[in-house]
Amino acid sequence: MKSTKHTLRLGIPKGSLQDTTQKLFVRAGYDLRISGRSYYPDIDDAEIECILIRPQEMARYVGHGILDCAITGLDWILETGADVAELADLRAPWPNYGTVRWVMAAKEDSPFQTVADLQGKRIATEAIGMTRHFLRQHGVEAEVEFSWGATEVKPPILADAIVDVSETGSSLRANGLKVMHVVLESTPRFIANHQSLGDTWKHDKINRLLMLLKGAIAAATRVLLSMNVARTSLDDVLRILPALATPTLSTLADPDWVELSTVVEEKQVRELIPGLYLAGARGIIELPINKIVE
Fold first, then answer.
1. What number is the average pLDDT over the span 263-279?
2. Contacts for 73-77: CB closer than 8 Å, 24+ residues apart
3. DSSP 257
């Protein structure tokens, strides 16, 4: 372990978020290497010490100051009730970094239609605190028990209803369950300890790290288009570009031509390039982007 002097302790989520988190750091410019045998990933920054921890526990360790900052889901922040600073929503178009739903569900043929129907009933879930909070919000008293897994198979024998994570709903449908309520929509969050943010060095280090992570996410769906355009065709080309695009123009050796570059959504490129060519753009190049810092 590294010395705690000028060292930032960073929690890396183990499990479903792990691989995507590692890729996020690589895109942000860090060489983060996670070994299957160690809970202390290597990173090419001598001022950062990484610890691999399950997301369910992460907020608690940050709240207690054992970790300075970390990535975990909003669901586990609320579940633990940890007092942490939420600095950023890190949702991204990558596996397990999108929005996940915690839903309340029961058997399709059950008499339960809403949470009010579960008064005095039994609910199985991994998120005990979140479920109890949802019940209190609706004035319902029910027995909430911890589920160690395979939650979706428990109704109707082992539980009357469940609260479980659902990304596509396919597992619920496969087990003959219907969604009664969306209890929470959760996304990955970057969190920090309040006292760590009060330390000038750690505060600055966290801000620099977060700037690069957010820059990598901002670039995830965008590319750079560069092209040469005759000045006589410039207005036609500019009309084709998306309204939010802010192109940069550079002069070329030939005064009758300019170089135009702009950032656009990658999904728009296949429609843009043929139109740009017909409008007079030549030498069109599409380049990937690692980071965009606004």
1. 95
2. 73/17, 73/100, 73/186, 73/187, 73/188, 73/189, 74/184, 74/186, 74/187, 74/188, 74/189, 75/100, 75/102, 75/127, 75/130, 75/165, 75/184, 75/186, 77/189, 77/191
3. E
Distance, CA of 62 to CA of 65 (rounded, Å): 5
Options 3.40.50.720, 3.40.190.10, 1.10.510.10, 3.10.105.10; CATH for 100-186 is 3.40.190.10
**pLDDT above 60: residue 279:** yes
- Reference 125, options 99, 155, 98; nearest CA is 155
CATH of domain 8-97+188-218: 3.40.190.10
Do 28 and 291 meet the contact criterion of CB atoms below 8 Å apart?
A: yes
DSSP string, 84-145: -EEEEE---SSTT-S-EEEEEEEETTSS--SGGGGTT-EEEES-HHHHHHHHHHTT---EEE
Residue whose tokens read 């000038």: 200
Query: Which residues are within 8 A (CB) of 285 and not within 5 positions of it... i.e. 6 or more apart?
Result: 225, 226, 227
Tell me if the pTM is above 0.85.
yes
CATH topology of domain 222-288: Alpha-Beta Plaits (3.30.70)
pLDDT at site 111:
95
Report yes or no: 17 and 96 within 8 Å, Cβ to Cβ: yes
Look-up of token digits 């009758």: 256
Find tokens 């939010």 and name the residue: 244
Residue 51 pLDDT > 70: yes
Report the alpha-carbon distance of residue 271 to residue 60 in Å, rounded: 48
State residue 269 phi and psi, 5-degree precision. -65, -40
Domain boundaries, the chain: 8-97+188-218, 100-186, 222-288
